[in-house]
């Protein structure tokens, strides 16, 4: 989704400017891939452009980052959420109804160095065909349940689809009964293993409200996650100790994009946060996941949504944090 920046423009009466910027690159323009496999160029990027070797950001350590482009597909845009799998792959959904898959490549020091076996496929609907246009295919959140079933939250027409691990067509499952704005819906989604194998968390972008849902029971509100009013809740992931990490994002024409990744204990106490704003490397980050390390280190992966705009980039960053 296009985030708080575009709503700020609307409020300021600059809707025409937003429309022009959002249409810089058409999602159907350019090369059309012949099959699911795509050629992705992953260019290393520094978290602090003024100090390319800088790694320390408080208790977070920069573990590499990549700017992603595809030479044979126009679909590597609008990435909204990601999940890391145990086999080294990542799954990423886009707000044009695509699923991007890749295998992470690390260098000798364990830093993010590239991607292999990259492919893009359309998300399907209950009928078995593609989801359709933007109103039907605006995927914003991705979760994976313990049995391998995948959940995708969509906005515009707000709903949650469950994709069975056995490959059967998806079906609609419980979603929060809340009056989401059309372009600020159930943005954040994650499995909720603390509450059961079929439980998941849903977060509303504008309100910051958090719900827990299961296949058998309606969604139950857990309250509102703390955030400044100008920030939207865009992603979340449970931590191994039962805590929670969530990402909030804001934009305005003077300061550009700003994000904060906030870590909380199971009792809700804030442990730490990572903040990115100019002059640091920052863009419209919308997805986050965590990879636990053997020594207790947590690796956070962040992905950005470029809004199909030539003025923005598709970024994949890694930050390590150790208790």
What's the topology here?
Layout (H helix, E strand, L loop, with lengths): L3 H8 L3 H8 L17 E5 L11 E2 L2 E11 L8 E6 L4 E6 L3 E9 L5 E11 L11 H4 L1 E6 L5 E5 L4 E5 L7 E3 L14 E4 L7 E5 L5 E6 L5 E5 L7 E7 L5 E9 L3 E9 L5 E8 L7 E8 L5 E7 L9 E8 L2
Antiparallel strand pairs: 1-3, 2-3, 3-22, 4-5, 5-6, 6-7, 8-9, 9-10, 10-11, 12-13, 13-14, 14-15, 16-17, 17-18, 18-19, 20-21, 21-22
Descriptive report:
By secondary structure, this protein is mainly beta. It has three helices and 22 strands. The longest helix is centred in the N-terminal third of the chain and has 8 residues. About 8% of the residues have low confidence.
Q: In terms of per-residue confidence, which ranges show pLDDT below 50 for 5 or more consecutive residues? A: 4-28
**Which series of helices and strands comes N to C?**
HHEEEEEEEHEEEEEEEEEEEEEEE
Average pLDDT for all residues: 90
Strand residue content: 35-45%
Helix content: under 10%
Number of discrete helical segments: 3
Radius of gyration: 18 Å
**Could you describe the largest sheet, including whether it forms a barrel?**
6 strands, antiparallel
Tell me the total number of β-strands: 22
Structural class: mainly beta
> Globular, elongated, flat, extended or rod-shaped: what is the shape?
globular
Distance N terminus to C terminus? 33 Å
